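Entry for erythose-4-phosphate complex. Fields follow.
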Amino acid sequence: MQFFADTAEIDDIKELASTGLLDGVTTNPSLIHKSGRDFMEVTREICELTDGPVSAEVVALDHEGMMREAEVLRKIADNVCIKVPLTMDGLKTCNALTRDGTMVNVTLCFSANQALLAAKAGATFISPFVGRHDDNGFDGMDLIRDIRQIYDNYDFDTEILVASIRHPGHVLESALIGADVATMPPKVIRQLANHILTDKGIEGFLADWEKTGQKIA
Ligand code: E4P
């Protein structure tokens, strides 16, 4: 399973990239706003920190506008992945860009039928938003299960990129279902490494080691 960081914060991306656990990055207009950075500039910096796909989202709503913006964004770096919304214009844009060899992430997916359309449009990634689905009284994980089944039924190559992840439980279930990618806030990536018994175990081992009076040198 690939791990993407869902952030535009350079320090977080640098730190996660240094662990070797980071496979890519996703951004969206809200994350760019939160970073306070210039969109083009911060996207260029992120692309230099990872060889993996870096999703940069268009804001135009019509096909022609999306194509124009995609043209600007894909010049930033070879690993830019154009993010388009799951609308008919977004799907048309996805089709045109992927035919051209450009990576496309179709975002704001809330139903399995939408995911089916994205796969038919040749999307590289489909982004179902599990957290926002949960927030609205649905089970985001049911959505991931349905998409996995549909994509397997028809051998679609589109990768399931689980988005809007809120906690490690979402990551665990996504992995059990067989989702291809999880994009997470840096905090959630770090939380994956935490366990109370790991902390207690380290504490106990260090206390006993101290008693031996030895040094590793
Ligand atoms: C995915 O690409 C989106 O940027 C993101 O996961 C949205 O998450 P949110 O629902 O926490 O805003």
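NOTE: The longest helix spans residues 196-212.
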